[in-house]
Here is the input.
Amino acid sequence: MGVLGVLRALLTLVVLPVAVSAVIVWLALSDRPQVQTRWPLNPLDIERAQQVFQGRVVTPYIRTVTLSQRDLNLVLYYLSNQILPAATRLRITPASVLIDMTMTLPNRYEVCYLNISVEVGKAFGRTRLSNMRIGRLQIADELAELMFRTAVKWAHLKQHFLLFTGQILDYELAGDELHLAYKTEPGQQQMPADLLAAPLDQQRSLFYQQQLADIIERHDPEWLLSLVDLLQPLFKTALAQSSPEQAVEENRIILYTVNEYVNGHDLLPLLPPASRLPSMRVYPAYIYKRQDLARHFMASATMTVSSGEHLANLLGLEKELRDAQGDSGFSFIDLAINRAGMRFGQIAVASPASARALQQQMATAHSYQAFIPDFLDLPEQLTGRALKKQFGYVYSPPYQQMLDKIDRRIHQLPFYQALLSSHQPGAAGLSGGAK
Here is the structure.
């Protein structure tokens, strides 16, 4: 073979794979999406998913579960979006399940789409993938199986895959439902609902974050943003779209979400990891025309539902005592707002009945004055020396009398009176001082 032949061979080895790859990419990608359907979860979807995946007990180690076409679409949408943002569609036929998916791929020149279709059904007693297409490419069934298993491993979905294959005893398609029978081993620690618990809590958080983003989008920047404008719509949504059994967790997530917006990352070392808020403009929230009071209320309420009122009380008092030694001074106004936040947080998570009653009250609240009294007449900017001279120490009668005055003002609001009348536990009052 001459030099020309060697060059031709080398050129073929280099160019041919590139050319083949280019043709494959050209056939796989499209300028039009095959699917545009997305499946955003609402609180009722999340609650139903938790209930459905608990299954029905047949024997001590066998359970059955019935999934509707919508249930399957929600699960598919969540799992596929662990890989890339995608629009998905699932259809149940008498013999198989048809899945269509569209992923939007980044391209500096134009938008391009990766359209995938596959059929899932039984063949010779086992589940098989067939008729897979990626764009205009028809994929052999054996290659489709290999690609699926690789994608599961790469997307860290192996735990889900093992659950839904290794433990499935049998399944059948009936109408627009899928009936599954699966086994549970003695001492088994994880059930299908357990695998979905953390993602579903995350979906709850994302749901309320999007609600909050919509509120901010509609806000008129010419006006001050009232704290009630953030809280009231979220509690109203929770009342309409969640059940009483889920009220405690819904309230906790709402307070985390609003606090993250109002206080940013100031409390993160003391609170559970915050979910990311969507990118949005940030307007300060106010009560009584003061931004710092809105921050105090939300921090105290959120700390209470996270760690309890005693820690919230201790941290709030410690901050004010530290301020007394600095330029800002001790503020009974701040302390009173903290205690109002603690009372709000207590009721928000005390019990499912209490949490639901709070949602009902908040759904019709049109002003923060409904649940936060006016404390602007209380003394503030007290130096350490002035605080000690007028009120002594935190257990002294004058100081405790001030706390009693604050608590009475909170409890006398019709908002809290209505909640107290609904057999509210722990309604006697907040612990005083640093007790």
About this structure: DSSP finds 15 helices and twelve strands in the chain. The longest helix spans residues 192-218.
